[in-house]
Backbone:
């Protein structure tokens, strides 16, 4: 079955630094990837839709200059949290869809802690 | 961003009992629905899906019911086991290949 890999699985950084999270589709090509954010005991909140070869589409309220998304190939999307602050500490989860398939396959998530 | 940011409701059941988890979705135009299971510290795992032209679909030990009139979705788990303990989310999709929006989620706790 489809596998999505995220890296790193957890990261701790100092306030003001930038952190990059990678999302890879291992055995299929993902024309579309989605980035979600999840706070403890809450649901997944869609941040943005990442389309291969074009700019990401951000959800309302999500700062595109703070959460940089790059989807340069059909198997890799990256999320960079720029100038991270403690309030950016969260669980970031990516998902990928092969073609127009409805089912999304999720990565294992990346836990970011900003000190 | 979309989705509900409230704290999760919980459901506690005895091992062997049946569980019913409910979800209210937001968009009457949604045409595809998925239930996901999320264990602590992990990403969501697909359980079962249903299209809007159906009102019931069964899998192994799980059944999803869809009531479009009241925009309600439910997940029934038969003979609940300790390994079923997790958070369960419904998600809706309202255009082919479009984004998936998650519902509030329910934390299921199975007592041995």
Residues:
């Amino acid at each position: 079955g489809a596998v999505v890999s995220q890296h790193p699985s957890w990261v701790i950084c100092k306030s003001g630094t930038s952190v990059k999270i990678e999302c890879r589709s291992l055995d299929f090509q993902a024309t579309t990837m989605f980035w979600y954010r999840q706070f403890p005991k809450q649901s997944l909140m869609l941040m943005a839709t990442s389309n291969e070869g074009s700019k990401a589409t951000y959800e309302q309220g999500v700062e595109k200059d703070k959460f940089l998304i790059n989807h340069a190939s059909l198997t890799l999307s990256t999320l960079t949290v720029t100038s991270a602050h403690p309030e950016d500490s969260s669980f970031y989860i990516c998902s990928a869809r092969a073609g127009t398939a409805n089912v999304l396959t999720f990565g294992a998530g990346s836990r970011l802690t900003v000190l | 961003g979309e989705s509900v940011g409230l704290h999760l409701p919980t459901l506690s059941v005895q091992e062997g009992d049946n569980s019913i988890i409910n979800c209210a979705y937001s968009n009457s135009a949604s045409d595809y629905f998925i239930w996901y299971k999320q264990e602590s510290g992990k990403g969501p795992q697909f359980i079962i899906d249903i299209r809007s032209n159906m009102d019931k679909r069964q899998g192994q030990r799980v059944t999803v019911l869809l009531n479009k009139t009241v925009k309600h979705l439910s997940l029934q788990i038969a003979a609940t086991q300790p390994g079923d303990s997790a958070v369960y989310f419904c998600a809706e999709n309202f255009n082919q290949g479009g984004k998936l929006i998650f519902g509030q989620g329910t934390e299921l706790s199975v007592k041995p």
